[in-house]
Specification:
The protein has 187 residues and is α/β, with parallel strands linked by helices. It is built from five helices and ten strands; from the N terminus they run E-E-H-E-H-H-E-E-H-E-H-E-E-E-E. The chain has a single domain, classed as Dihydrofolate Reductase, subunit A (3-Layer(aba) Sandwich). Helix 1 runs parallel beside helix 3. Pfam families: RibD_C.
């Protein structure tokens, strides 16, 4: 059975994007960027919602070809392109860069994927992760908290029908007061 992790940068007040989808508050230090890059390099399959897919695919496929691209950005772009990805969307027409489009029931497809053999899976995108969270499919929560209050926007957590008990399994600090906490769901 495959493990499913939901991990993103989060403000102290619990948002993954501020009002107007502002992400400017979550710019990573070099160390944090490398940590995210290493995570992308080790992910067996990434599951994206439409909105985050559009954001990522508008930049990373060619980021390594941009003037002045740092070695870290070049490496991340390569890893991102190479990482197997699924995009869940009923409105996206086509995907590229080692990606498959899923237009059907996301919860059913994620349930099927979890039952398969294979590497770890990461899920990203607030709407997609919320559906998986409500269905009890997420095994780990990886919260990279930035010391900022954004006051609104897109929340990391969704409203749930039942509690999800968690166990803290890892913490790590990064420059600029950023704290990573990793929890596993207790079932």
């Amino acid at each position: 059975m495959r493990n499913l992790t939901f991990g993103m940068n989060v403000s102290v007040d619990g948002y993954i994007a501020g009002p107007g989808d502002d992400l400017g508050w979550s710019l990573p230090s070099d160390e944090l960027f490398q940590w995210w890059s290493d995570r992308v390099g080790s992910t067996g399959l990434a599951l994206y919602g439409r909105k985050l897919w559009e954001t990522m695919s508008s930049h990373w496929p060619t980021a390594d070809q941009q003037p002045g691209a740092s070695p870290a950005h070049i490496e991340y772009a390569r890893r991102w392109r190479d990482m197997p990805k699924l995009v869940f969307s009923s409105t996206t027409a086509a995907v590229d860069w080692n990606t498959r489009l899923v237009t059907g029931d996301a919860v059913a497809e994620i349930t099927r994927l979890k039952a398969d053999d294979g590497g770890s899976m990461d899920i990203a995108g607030a709407t997609l992760a919320a559906a998986a969270m409500r269905a009890g499919l997420i095994d780990e929560y990886l919260i990279v908290t930035h010391p900022v209050l954004v006051g609104g926007g897109t929340p990391f957590f969704t409203a749930l029908d039942n509690w999800v008990n968690l166990s803290l399994v890892e913490t790590r600090t990064f420059p600029d007061g950023v704290l990573m906490t990793r929890y596993v769901a207790r079932r």
